[in-house]
Amino acid sequence: MGKEYLIDTNAVIDYLDNKLPGKANELIDGMDSKISVITRMELLSWSGASKQQTLVLNGFINATQVFALEEPVILKAIDIRKNHKTKLPDAIIAARTLKSSGT
User: Are residues 103 and 81 in the same domain?
Assistant: First the structure.
């Protein structure tokens, strides 16, 4: 099985705005998109989004596998945040990524 990636919030925004380099767009185009529930929350809480942008975001999210927070991910995020002074959303995304890779 190939590598799996969770897409970060900023990468999703840049992807949907066609601001990523070609290779990055190709990578996302060629994979089953996966995001954390934190990314979903960040995307949908964008207060400046127009109705059209909200429709695009919802379309992307509906076509994406969204990972919920599970106790092992929560505990790993706590560990990452304590040891690496990472923002909470980034620590959760990293913890979920590590759990997906079996680390």
Answer: yes
